[in-house]
Amino acid sequence: MPPKPVYIAQISDLHIKPPGSLAYGRVDTAKALERCVAALNAFAPRPDLVVISGDLADTPTAGEYAYLQRLLAPLELPFVCIPGNHDSRELMRAALPQAYAFASGPLNQLVEIGGLELVLLDSSVPGQPHGELEAPTLQWLEATLESSADRPALVFLHHPPFKAGIWHMDRQNLRNAAELAAVVRRHPRVQLIATGHIHRADGA
């Protein structure tokens, strides 16, 4: 029998503000997330996992993460997340404890589901808008991909490792994309690299 399909849903750049506040002064991101959660719950076939690829909070504050928890509570699907440039590693680790690879520092994760490996990389640079994969993250990625020769792997991070053609976002993309590319070239089992950050459907 063929293997059962695995369905992964990706959402990104939630930018949750305190209740009653609008992102960028005009976007009700809380209402957008409520609609998104309802849509995810209604999908058929139902996703096996939701990946949230960064910028969960906006400022960020502990209150924003608490509000995010309330907004995600109706989600009937398991989810994992990585930080973006608007997030705080420390606040996110406290609010959303998951199986992070390191006890401190980058919030990398490995998720095994239905014969797939989802490799979640923390490309955030505390206090900066651009992305960079720290040396421990690249070393962890190499070791993780070396752990199997043939199991398909999907890589997620917040910052695109390519130019999108949007000048103000390209200044904030992944600074060491060549180092990521070198690792991926050594491991052809990587089937996909998915990102967020640029707020465009074709950039994720």
Please tell me about this protein's structure.
- The mean pLDDT is 93.
- 28% of the residues lie in helices and 19% in strands.
- The protein is built from 6 helices and 9 strands, in the order E-H-E-H-E-H-E-E-E-E-H-E-H-H-E.
- It has a single domain, classed as Metallo-dependent phosphatases (Purple Acid Phosphatase, chain A, domain 2).
| CATH topology title | Purple Acid Phosphatase, chain A, domain 2
The gross shape turns out to be globular
- Strand order, sheet with most strands: 4-5-8-9
Mean pLDDT: 93
What is the element string, with H for helices and E for strands? EHEHEHEEEEHEHHE
User: Termini, distance in Å?
Assistant: 32 Å
What oligomeric state is this?
single chain
Class from helix and strand fractions: alpha/beta
Please name the CATH architecture.
Answer: 4-Layer Sandwich
The domain tally reads 1
Top CATH class: Alpha Beta
Summarize the amount of helix as a percent range: 25-40%
Gyration radius, in Å: 16 Å
Q: Note the main sheet.
A: 4 strands, mixed
CATH H-level name... which superfamily?
Metallo-dependent phosphatases
Low confidence ranges: none
Task: Tally the helices.
Answer: 6
> How much beta, percentage-wise?
15-25%
Number of E-type strands:
9
